[in-house]
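Q: Given only this backbone (181 positions), what sequence would you predict?
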């Protein structure tokens, strides 16, 4: 995304980059700056902020949306419709939505990225081993509209108790390696 923005701004094109979370915005801003994107031609912001200032924005040549599976929401649609001549580039690792609506409603083409296995093989992602308790009743798990598990259903599926000794399991399975618990 930063490379596209760098090339676009190098040609004098304005870019509007939209995300839905502050953490993603901060990471993208740092990446764009380190990749020499002309930030005077690149407006970056969270959808909530962009929508409040939409009338003040200079017309972009390109609109880039990260986590684009959110782009069917009214706020994103309002931004997209405000700039009908802009090229829209949508990026997401999850090109499906829990409501069943496809991104083909707002996208003409979908370009698939490399599979995770290839990205791991090429060193772009770290290989991961997953370990979890076996006493989870997955039939109890319910999802919210955004696709995340409902907290009450998690409590039902995973009874709140300690499953063994976490430190011993770590030392047995991954001594000296980084781990996330």
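A: Predicted residues:
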């Amino acid at each position: 995304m930063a490379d596209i923005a760098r090339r676009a701004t190098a040609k004098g094109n304005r870019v509007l980059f939209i995300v839905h979370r502050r953490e993603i915005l901060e990471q993208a801003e740092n990446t764009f700056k380190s990749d020499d994107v002309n930030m005077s031609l690149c407006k970056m912001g969270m959808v909530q902020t962009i929508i409040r200032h939409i009338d003040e924005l200079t017309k972009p040549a390109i609109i880039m949306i990260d986590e684009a599976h959110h782009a069917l929401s009214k706020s994103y649609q309002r931004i997209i419709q405000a700039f009908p001549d802009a090229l829209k580039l949508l990026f997401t690792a999850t090109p499906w939505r829990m409501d069943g609506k496809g991104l083909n409603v707002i996208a003409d083409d979908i370009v698939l990225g490399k599979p995770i296995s290839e990205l791991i093989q090429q060193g772009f992602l770290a290989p991961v081993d997953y370990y979890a308790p076996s006493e989870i009743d997955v039939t109890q798990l319910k999802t919210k509209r955004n696709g995340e598990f409902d907290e009450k259903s998690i409590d039902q599926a995973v009874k709140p108790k300690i499953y063994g000794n976490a430190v011993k399991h770590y030392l047995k399975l991954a001594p000296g390696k980084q781990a996330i618990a």
